[in-house]
Design brief:
single chain; alpha/beta; 5-stranded parallel sheet
């Protein structure tokens, strides 16, 4: 009986021990699992943070690279590329300014004298000058042509800047260019820049024609190579002053173009007073000979024109105007065959030479 009771106690204790051991093992397993979960959770979170940090670093690097690229001028239209172009263009701008300065081109100027009100007659003082007029407006062309009519100034009209360049390419012997700023095809700005790049045109004075009067506008014209500026509508006083400034004083020239005074004095027996008398008679009789000849030729009165030219050739030879005398004789011959039209060009030559001669006579007598 006692033995049976003792066995039951031992069995109960064994069960309790097993139960305790089981509980201890389960708790131990749970603790390990929790530790593993904690460790796994830690690495998961840490990996996320590391990925986020890497992503942020990449974004920052990309932004820094973009900023660096913009500063390095590697993209089209970048700051540095624009500055490179500006620096590359700058020497040309500086050269252009140097070419357009009057000092660089050694312009000879003279002070404008005060002679009162300026009229068309005053422009005869510039007889023999050649002026290229680059102007696309027909009315303005007619105004300038009318202003220089009978002055002895030879003018050529160009309808735009390209025509002006074409004319100069064939004949560069012009003293002045009246350059309209705003023209089709090639503007006055473009044409002036091209002219100033060629040294064979350095002797030509370029005068801008424009209604633009702001300081910046005039500076732009100067930078393009235009040395003087005339405001539209044109004022003849301003034009006269510019032409006078850049035209040599004819009274200081030892050799005249049309009047050989020594030849004339020889014919007059070295009598200067008598020579002056002949010169005055020529002015009184033939100063308006161009008008009379034009009337005779237009009315086809060739016989009267022939007699008039015969007298004219004699008197011009007597005063020493040998060049005009030859032109007159050629014109006299040309009107015998008017159909070929040669007499028209000779008449133009006579008009130009006569105006120069009249000016030279006045200069010689003064």
């Amino acid at each position: 009986m006692l033995e049976t009771y003792f066995n039951e106690i031992i069995a109960t204790i064994a069960i309790l021990l097993i139960t305790v051991i089981y509980i201890i093992i389960k708790k131990s397993q749970q603790k390990k699992k929790q530790q593993v979960e904690i460790i796994e959770d830690y690495f998961i979170v840490d990996d996320f943070n590391m990925q986020s940090a890497d992503a942020n670093e990449e974004e920052v690097n990309e932004e820094m690279q973009e900023i660096q690229d913009s500063l390095d001028g590697e993209e089209e239209g970048s700051f540095e590329e624009q500055n490179k172009e500006e620096f590359l263009d700058e020497p040309e701008v500086i050269d252009a300014k140097k070419d357009t300065s009057s000092n660089t081109l050694n312009r000879e100027k003279r002070a404008v004298r005060n002679i009162g009100k300026i009229t068309k007659e005053n422009f005869k003082e510039f007889a023999g000058q050649r002026i290229l007029v680059a102007e696309d407006n027909i009315i303005n062309q007619k105004v300038i042509t009318g202003l220089f009519a009978d002055s002895g100034i030879e003018i050529t009209i160009a309808d735009d800047g390209q025509f002006a360049l074409d004319i100069l390419e064939k004949d560069s012997n012009y003293n002045f260019i009246l350059m309209d700023v705003h023209m089709p095809r090639v503007s006055g700005f473009e044409a002036s820049k091209k002219i100033r790049k060629d040294s064979k045109y350095n002797h030509i004075i370029i005068i801008s024609l424009s209604g633009d009067v702001a300081t910046d506008d005039i500076r732009k014209m100067t930078d393009a190579g235009m040395e003087e500026h005339l405001e539209k509508p044109l004022r003849i006083e301003a034009l006269y002053k510019i032409l006078y400034t850049y035209t040599k004083d004819s009274s200081k020239q030892t050799k005249m173009q049309e009047l050989d005074t020594q030849s004339g004095l020889n014919i007059c027996g070295e009598d200067k007073d008598f020579y002056f008398e002949i010169l005055n008679e020529f002015i009184n009789t033939y100063a308006k000979s161009t008008e009379k000849l034009q009337t005779l030729l237009n009315n086809k009165k060739m016989n009267e024109a022939d007699k008039y030219l015969l007298d004219l050739s004699g008197i011009t030879a007597n005063i020493g105007a040998n060049n005009i005398s030859k032109i007159v004789l050629d014109l006299k011959l040309a009107i015998t065959t008017p159909k070929d039209g040669r007499y028209v060009e000779l008449f133009k030559n006579y008009v130009q030479s006569l105006n120069i001669l009249l000016q030279e006579i006045e200069t010689y007598k003064s």
